[in-house]
Amino acid sequence: MNFLFLSWLVLGLGACAAALPWRSARITALLGGGSAVLGCVSGLIAVGQGLVAERAATFSLPWSMPGGSFSLRLDGLSAFFLLPLFIVGLVGALYGTEYMQKEKACLHWSWYNLLLVSMAMVVTAANGLLFLFAWECMSLTSFFLVITEYNKSEVVAAGWIYLLATHLGAACLFAFFLSAGAFCGSLDFASFQHLNKLTGPVVSVLFLLLLAGFGSKAGIFPLHVWLPDAHPAAPSHVSALMSGVMVKTAIYGLLRMCSFFTASPVWWGGLLMAIGITGALFGIAMAAMQSDVKRSLAYSTVENVGIILLALGFWMQSRAAGQHVVAALALAGGLIHLLNHALFKSLLFLGAGSLMHGSDSRDLNRMGGLMCRMPVTGLMIVCGGMAISALPPFNGLVGEWFIYRALLESGAALSGLGGFFPVMLVGCLALVGGLVLIVMTRIIGIALTGVPRSPEAAEAHEAGWPMRSAMIVLALLCLAGGLLPIQLLRVAGRAAVLLDPESAQLFAGQVITPWWLGIMAFLLIGALLAAFSFNRWRQGRGTVAAASTWGCGFAFPSNRMTYSAESYSELAQSGMFCSCLTPKSKDGRTIGFFPIRRFFVFTAPDPVLEKFFKPLFQRLADYCRRCCRLQSGNLHIYLLYVFCTTILLLFWVGQR
Amino acid sequence: MRITILQLFLHLLLLFGFSPLLSGVIGKTKALFTGRVGPPFLQLYFDIWKLFGKGMVISRTTTWIFRAGPVVGLAVPLLAGLLIPFGPVGAPISFSGDLIFFVYLFALSRFFTACAALDTGSSFEGMGAVREVTFSCLAEPTVFFVFIVLARLSGSFSLDAMFGQTLAASWHTAAPSLLLILVCLFIVTLVENCRIPFDDPTTHLELTMIHEVMVLDHSGPDFGMILYGAAMKLFVFGALVVRLFLPGTTGNMALDILLFIGGILFMAVVVGVIESVMARLRLLRIPQLLVGASLLSFFSLILLLR
Q1: Closest by CA position to B99, among listed B62, B140, B39
Q2: Is A622 inside any structural domain?
Q3: What is the mean pLDDT of residues B143-160?
Q4: 73-102 in B: which are within 8 Å (CB) of A?
């Protein structure tokens, strides 16, 4: 706990120091970034203590807020969520010191440090009011980080959508906490145990409030609309922090609150699973159609959150049904995938930022051939792409392996409808896995390999050492997770003890151990090395000549002839996706005998935003505009309003 | 321990020694149908041997990814071959949940083959990469459904046990399901190994190829490794089909191994016959056939679930 306070102190001092008007941006970056790095190191020590300690560390101070107390609690679940926070916060700060050099970064570092503090406070708060306070701080600081480039109109638009979505979610959370506090008599989490006694439809309403409130932050399926705009708009290390960690704080909230309802009905899990798999399929299908690399990664976050939700929902359902082995597998899968996603998605966002830095564009079609000019960034993106596609020997496979095993175990054991749904989900998950492969080979194949598609890409430059080392650290962690899956399970086990003690007992035993996955990862590396050395040995005899790519005898292909990002996903889109996802194209036809200059625009807007939320809010705005008549601008009328209101209030008081 | 080492030895022997023979048998069958003499049975051995001694020509646009494709393409079927039983010879490596690892191993090889193809910057190879990743994305649910059927029947989640002793007994109790998944697994074998009706390995037009077009720019030892890896992949998938088809044992190990080899050669003949009597499907039809196959495998699962 002391190290956590030290971390907050360092981060807070850094935030203040970075806010001062220093003469050069370098000093600001050094103060802000340096304090963030130091704070995260101190935070990581606290996490280590929290993961090792047998008992939860608590801390409490009186707070003058009515109903609030400044009480904190660092237990296994909190430590599990703090771990990715401080890892990604640390590498993000390192990355940012170089990334933000070009940009005008007034107050950037203050917001960054405060975001880290508020996220850590969200995860450790043990009082409803403190939680909401930290939650709001997190939303606001991340909003200011999203609109770092506030002179661009699309960035500001993305920021507003984000602010709106996050506050609509926060409204649900206020409703939940106030009603839970009213029932339990106190807003302290310790007294929330009484929620267990609630029965009837009230419980379901509370759960739906939680789902809407946290879901809007986590980007679960119909509430994800802010995510694909806001994550790309932010600077890349902030995108990494938001996509990798901030989204997970919402999952933390959901898990923490659901842990108070120990006897949850079966349909909660079913609902989470349905939302999860829909979101996974939708997210990855949309990711396959975006030509903006960061937008594609943001949609992939929607997909991964869907997978995590699917696993957690399956855990809830099987726990309610009393299948402890399946519940343990699903819980382990959900938690490990959550941790892994924080690592590889951050890695990919940092890599995407490095590509943008090098080629001056976010559009995949303006990159190309960057592997030659940015070898380290390229290698790191390949590593991240392998991890997110759940390919051995990286960590992504470990989480998915548990989720698949949970579904398979239950599908093979149950019969009738009980076995039907897990089996269906295995098929859907396999389809999602195949689509992830399309998305990742598309990003790697179009952006990194082939020929440069724009003059800027032809002159791209590699990132400096802070950006490179940040990516290398994350890639090594991803590889380590794949080679030592037992350690991942052990860390997840610390969080699982608090959520489901019965299943957590299985984490240590032989029943669900992923021991063999680690062995297989080592064997795979061995086989790859053997094949590689054989290749080198045979090549030693012959000569290696360089020539141009085979083009059926045409030796001068231009970069306009190669496969583009849209053409790469066209087959999947036309053959597999439903028609509501069809991207919009403008002016693609050429008619007439002689070639003329034409422009072809291809966009894939979010169908949920376009077809549901935009008309809904448009209609709301129309209704509200009618109320404008009340605002006449005449002072006398306003005084009349005040008078009438006072009279009405007097009547009301008199009635009581 | 000694048995495991013997199994490992036999696996490697069969995988390295016999896998290129299948291509020769397929070629001979097709030649027989068209009334030609055809290339000798050992043609692929000669080809691979020749390629391993040759120099290389590499496109100027390529990077290390291009060279990684063949390396992964050889290492993956090798490791995957160790996870499955070859007829009566049990798998040297087997653990609960290895079927998931098996599926994702092949995804790894697909990932690198597609990236290596795109590395050349050629539209043809991009086209091949798109088709490969899209079609196998549709084939993956089928593989899982087939494996779930077998897992239900055997009560185990390791490929060794799923394709193990219990299979013969399962044919008595759940023959319709097993027959359906045999068909599905055979379809998956054809699509994963790029055979007719999904892809024509001997076509001459780049526009219609899938697998061959992705490796257009590979040459010399790299190409030799790709051919060897593809042959091993066909052998691995063929071994699963044959094991499903011939689950019984005679009790005599040597006879069983001969039976297994005979079975896998017979499967090669069947593939050759299909390639002789059928044309390649139109590309638009391929997703429909694949979805049909996964529905079929799902149906076989429903037969068991009821």
Answers
A1: B140
A2: no
A3: 92
A4: 74-76, 78-79, 93, 95-101
Which residue's entry shows tokens 């310790």?
Answer: A190
**Considering the domain boundaries, does residue A308 fall inside one?**
no
Distance of CA A572 to the CA centre of its chain: 25
Contact residues on chain A for B110, CB-CB shorter than 8 A: 437
Token pair 């995949």 is at which residue? A364
| Residue of chain A whose alpha carbon sits nearest to that of B147 | A408
Chain B CB contacts of A544 below 8 Å = 55-58
The per-residue pLDDT for range B20-48, each reduced to its tens digit, is 999 999 999 999 999 999 899 999 999 99
Q: Has residue A29 been placed in a domain? A: yes
Structure tokens at B6: 């013997």
pLDDT tens sequence across B191-220: 999 888 888 877 777 777 788 888 888 998
Give the total number of structural domains in chain A.
Answer: 1
Residue of B58, B74, B60 lying closest to B113 (CA atoms)? B74
Cα(A92)–Cα(A111) distance, integer angstroms:
13
* Structural element, H or E, at residue A584: strand A584-586
* C-alpha–C-alpha distance, residues A190 and A13, integer Å: 31
Instruction: Tell me the ipTM for this assembly.
Output: 0.95
Which secondary-structure segment (H or E) carries A520?
helix A515-541
Indicate the SS3 state at residue A233: helix
Distance CA B246, CA B238 (A): 12
> Are residues A527 and B93, on separate chains, in Cβ contact within 8 Å?
no
Q: Reply yes or no on whether the pLDDT at A507 is more than 70.
A: yes
**Chain B environment of A489 (Cβ under 8 Å):** none
Beta-carbon separation of B145 and A426 below 8 A: yes
User: Which alpha helices (H) appear in chain B, and where do they start and end?
Assistant: 2-34, 43-52, 64-81, 98-119, 123-154, 159-162, 166-173, 175-192, 211-214, 220-245, 253-277, 285-305
Contacts of residue B131 in chain A, CB cutoff 8 Å? 571
User: What pairing do the DSSP bridges indicate for beta strands A544-547 and B56-59?
Assistant: parallel
CA–CA distance, B267 with B25 (Å, rounded to integer): 10
| Residue A16 DSSP SS3 | helix
Q: Is residue A544 part of a domain?
A: no
Helix (H, G, I), strand (E, B) or coil at B36: coil
Pick from A392, A450, A542: which is nearest to B104 by CB? A392
Reply yes or no on whether the pLDDT at A411 is more than 90. no
DSSP-based three-state secondary structure for A62 = strand
Q: By the 8 A CB rule, do A568 and B126 touch? A: yes
Phi, psi for B60 (deg, rounded to 5): -70, -25
Specify the length of chain B in residues: 306
Instruction: Report which of B37, B118, B140, B73 is spatially closest to residue A532, judged by C-alpha positions.
Output: B73
Q: Is the Cβ of B282 closer than 8 Å to some Cβ of chain A?
A: no
Nearest-neighbour CA in chain A from B94: distance (Å):
9
CB contact under 8 A, B58 and A546: yes
CA distance linking residue A545 with residue A569, whole number of Å: 33
Test A535 with B123 for CB contact under 8 angstroms: no
Q: List CB contacts (< 8 A) between A539 and chain B.
A: 56, 220-221
Identify the CA nearest to A549 among candidates B155, B61, B56, B259. Answer: B61
Cβ atoms < 10 Å from Cβ of A623: 8
Query: By C-alpha distance, which of A260, A548, A414 is closest to B58?
Result: A548
Q: Give the gap in angstroms from C-alpha B191 to the nearest C-alpha of chain A.
A: 15
Which of A353, A317, A593 is CA-nearest to residue A463?
A353
pLDDT digits (tens, 9 = 90+) for B157-171: 999 999 988 888 888
Is B33 exposed, middle or buried (CB count within 10 Å of its CB: 0-12, 13-18, 19+)?
middle
Find the angle CA(A178)-CA(A183)-CA(A189) to the nearest 5 degrees: 70
Instruction: Show the domain range for A73.
Output: 1-195+222-242
Amino acid at B148: I
Residues A199 and A209: their CA atoms lie apart, in Å, by 16
